[in-house]
Q: What sequence folds into this?
């Protein structure tokens, strides 16, 4: 099972136009997103640190530790994203181990890329 | 439930002396550890990036993504650690959601500290 297949028919998917702010780092983090279509840029203090596309997740950090957002996410192209709020996130962690492992892999991948820049 | 309470009576816990290498970044990553007693330093290319203590985990990155170790872990004091191999790790992800959330929080915490140094 992959994340894109799992979420692609989400009834509450949201559409954004190129340039729209999907996540504002100054807002509380009560939702993460699974990217279904298009691309989005992850910005930390106006520096682009990553670009995500279909099957990727964004906004999971604040959902996991309940602290403020660490980054702003801006639509690079028109995009469509499935929101995952805290309740659904906890449900998925409990019921779908592949989801937990995927989230862990995303975080580890980011850490490795940051480690390599030490 | 916390991780220390869960593992403190592990029958296969390992003891290390101050200065012992617990994880060598050149070796394959087929096990992570939960620190039960003592402290250990996490080193990336001879630079100390973190010190962990009781209840913390080390070595989870290579276990999660199956790539080589990202860091060397050296016993700062005498310490005692519970090993978690891949089979047990996957079992815990499946059966104990609090474990998955704990691992995610550890990873997010590290990312935030690295983000702040960008």
A:
């Amino acid at each position: 099972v992959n994340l894109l297949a799992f979420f692609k028919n989400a009834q509450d998917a949201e559409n954004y136009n190129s340039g729209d702010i999907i996540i504002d780092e100054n807002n509380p983090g009560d939702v993460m997103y699974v990217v279904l279509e298009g691309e989005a840029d992850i910005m930390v203090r106006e520096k682009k640190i990553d670009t995500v596309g279909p099957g990727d997740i964004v906004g999971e950090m604040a959902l996991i530790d309940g602290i403020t957002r660490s980054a702003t996410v801006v639509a690079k192209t028109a995009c469509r994203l499935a929101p995952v709020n805290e309740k659904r996130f906890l449900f998925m962690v409990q019921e779908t181990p592949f989801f937990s492992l995927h989230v862990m892999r995303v975080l580890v991948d980011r850490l490795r890329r940051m480690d390599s820049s030490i």
Summary: The beta strands of chain B are 14-16, 21-23, 31-37, 40-44, 47-52, 57-58, 72-75, 79-85. The interface with chain A takes residues 44-45, 47, 49, 60-61, 64-65, 67, 70-71, 90, 93-94, 97, 100-101, 103-105, 107-112, 114-115, 118 of chain B (CB under 8 Å).
